[in-house]
């Protein structure tokens, strides 16, 4: 058993299958979960900082800070329910989102990250909500799945649907003598 398999067993959730059912790389799963956990915590901290905008009569920044703290809390609840184990409903929400496809989480994170930036576009909201937005982008990439092989992509790109690979792997448009060069 390799070191990464041992770490994977330690990071498993209760009741999770030992063999993953999807073809998403392990590092991308941990990147999404890690960025969501760390980004949610940073978003909460920066949301408190943005709320100090009320001292300068910026009500939009107060609302944006509250929204950012709420978005950070939702992200932590979904990605790291162990951080909020004192709340009874957290594990249910996390299990519900765990059973959904990756694009649900990606869409949720992107949707909850944008309002704070729209309301008060300062560095704290851009960075805090940007981390949550980045988590949504990672989950969106995970929902796309693995890239196809070279043969599959060449077959899909051809008009007939089954194109053979070129014999010369180094041929490009620039090496073609019929192509005009400036």
UniProtKB/TrEMBL annotation:
It is a multi-pass membrane protein. One of its GO terms (biological process) is endocytosis. It comes from Thrips palmi. It comes from the Eukaryota. This is Calcium channel flower. Residues 156-182 are annotated as: Disordered. It holds the Pfam family Cg6151-P. GO terms for cellular component: endosome; presynaptic membrane; synaptic vesicle membrane. InterPro entries: TVP18/Ca-channel_flower. One of its GO terms (molecular function) is calcium channel activity. Keywords: Calcium, Calcium channel, Calcium transport, Cell projection, Cytoplasmic vesicle, Endocytosis, Endosome, Ion channel, Ion transport, Membrane, Transmembrane, Transmembrane helix, Transport. It is found in: Cytoplasmic vesicle, Secretory vesicle, Synaptic vesicle membrane; Endosome; Presynaptic cell membrane. The chain crosses the membrane at residues 35-57, 69-90, 102-119, 125-144. Belongs to the calcium channel flower family. Homomultimer. Associates with the dally/ magu complex.
């Amino acid at each position: 058993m390799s070191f990464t398999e041992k770490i994977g067993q330690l990071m498993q959730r209760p009741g999770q299958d030992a063999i993953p059912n999807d073809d998403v790389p392990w590092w991308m799963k941990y990147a999404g979960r890690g960025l969501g956990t760390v980004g949610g915590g940073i978003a909460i901290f920066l949301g408190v900082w943005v709320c100090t905008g009320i001292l300068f009569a910026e009500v939009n920044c107060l609302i944006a800070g509250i929204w950012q703290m709420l978005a950070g809390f939702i992200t932590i609840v979904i990605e790291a329910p162990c951080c909020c184990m004192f709340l009874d409903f957290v594990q249910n929400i996390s299990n519900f989102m765990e059973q959904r496809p990756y694009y649900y989480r990606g869409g949720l994170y992107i949707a909850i990250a944008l309002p704070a930036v729209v309301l008060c576009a300062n560095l704290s909201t851009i960075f805090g909500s940007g981390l949550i937005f980045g988590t949504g982008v990672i989950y969106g990439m995970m929902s796309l799945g693995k890239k196809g092989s070279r043969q599959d992509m060449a077959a899909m790109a051809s008009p007939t649907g089954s194109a053979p690979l070129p014999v010369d792997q180094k041929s490009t448009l620039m090496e073609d003598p019929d192509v005009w060069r400036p």
